[in-house]
Structure formats: structure tokens, C-alpha cells
Amino acid sequence: MNLKVRQGISISLLPLFIFQFLFCVNHSLEGGEKVESHTLQSEQTEIHFLSNDCKNKKKLLVFIHGSPGSSSDFLSYLNDKDLQTQFCILVPDRLGYGQSMNQVSFPDIFTQGKAIHAALLNYFKKESHSFTNGYVVGHSYGGPVSLVIAMEKDPSYPIVWKCILLSSPADPNLEELYWYNKLASVMFVKWILPKSWVHSNEEMYTLKSDLEKLTTILGNYPLDILSVHGEMDKLVPLENIYYFTKWKPMIKHKIQILEGENHFIPWTSFAEIKEILLTEGS
């Protein structure tokens, strides 16, 4: 293929697939705890994640990145002094991204969530950490994955989760594929794109059916959910924020809309998200 054509396709697709960028100044207070890297086996998968110093911490905070993305997306939170003081913070690379089996695609929120849940429990047991309550924060595609994590149960390590969904899809009826999803699935375009973008596109093809399945599994499951969404989100429609409120009576659901904000609220609204986390964990 002509080099100029390849470059043109890459440039034209760039804004369609980059779902994380740290372009704004946030108000993170640099903490003194060292960020540590861990890799743990979980059945047939391998999960890499970052953490702060979790010794003697009573509260657990887990971040799940979007599509594409990696654990580094939440470094500003992981390094924040106030959050470090209050929480043991864990930030995994989802399967297919970062350092978690990044050469393979795993377009399934259930495979993703169960693998992370199992890896986290292995880590807790290995390090003798004990948490009875946890907060799992999912951005974008990471939102449904966080719901799967919250529903997973292990009698040997009971933990009650609260989900904080940031710019998260929820309503399967709002999911649709666009022309660029179809373009990115063409073989010669997949050859051009980074693997993380290819994996992200494959996740978009299965998300609607995954959300339909998630809806069925949720049933009357008593989850505690806080949905936070940017008013001007053009990637994941704001209407998703009302989905659980409309028809899930057993779900304790609160919503918060950030006026004038877009899809990238973990970074554009860092101070607001941080305050939400500190308040929820207090």
C-alpha cells in the first residue's frame, strides 16, 4: 500500500479511536507512596495492575479503564495524596491492553470482569489484605466490566462493592456501530492500526449483546450504583445514565450530570471526580 495512503488512513482514524488523553491540568496532590507493579495469574489469563501502598488500608478503590486504555490512564488518581491516604488503590490493565496479554483480543465484558475479580482476590490473599467493602470505578467500556466485577462472589473472600460509573454505556438499545467501526474491521486497516485500537473496535461489535446479557443477569440484583456523566458526551449518550433508574427497583441508583463536560470526565473533571470518591469513601 502507498505510504501516503496508509498515513492518511491512520490520521483520519486517530480521533475515532483515542478514548483517553491527559490533555488538561488537574489538581492532583502528589503523594509520597510508591506506585507498584504486579502481575498475577488467574486461571488461563494474566492480569497486570498498578497499586499504591495497601498495607494497613481499610478501604479499597479499583479503577477499570475504557476502550482502548491502560492502567496508566489513572496515574493522577493513583498518585494523589488524599486518595492514597484513604484507599488501597488498584488499577488493572484489562485483558488485551497494557501488559495484560496485549497481543490477544477479549471482546467480552464477562471474561474481562471475572478475570480481574479473580486476580484481585489472588492478590488480596497473597498479601493478606482484608477488605469488606470496595469501590469499583469504571470509565466508558470499563463501566459494564465494573458491574460484572461487583456481581462476582467468592465465599472465601466476601466483599460488598459499590459501582461508580463514569461516562458508561448501560442501555443496549443505545448501542450502534458506525462506519468507522466497519472500516476498522477490514483486514488491511487492521494491519495499520495499533493492536489496542483493533481490540477496542472488536469490543464495540459485541457490546450491545453483552449489555443485553448483563441486563438479564442483573435481574433484581441489589447493586449500589452511582452514575456520573458529562452533559455533552458525544461518544456515549447521556441517556444511558437513566437506564437503571427506569426499571431496576432492587438497584440503589444515583445519578450526577456534569454540566458542559464531555466523555473524558476522569481527566477534564478530575477535581469533581476526586471529591466524589472521597465523599463516597468517607
Automatic annotation (TrEMBL):
Residue ranges of domain AB hydrolase-1 in the record: 60-177
Designated name of the protein: Alpha/beta fold hydrolase
InterPro entries (alphabetical): AB_hydrolase_1 (IPR000073), AB_hydrolase_fold (IPR029058), Peptidase_S33 (IPR002410)
Domain of life: Bacteria
TM regions (residue ranges): none
GO MF term list: hydrolase activity
Organism: Leptospira vanthielii
Family: Belongs to the peptidase S33 family.
Keywords: Hydrolase
Gene3D superfamilies, A to Z: alpha/beta hydrolase
PANTHER family tied to this protein: PUMMELIG, ISOFORM A, RE40534P-RELATED
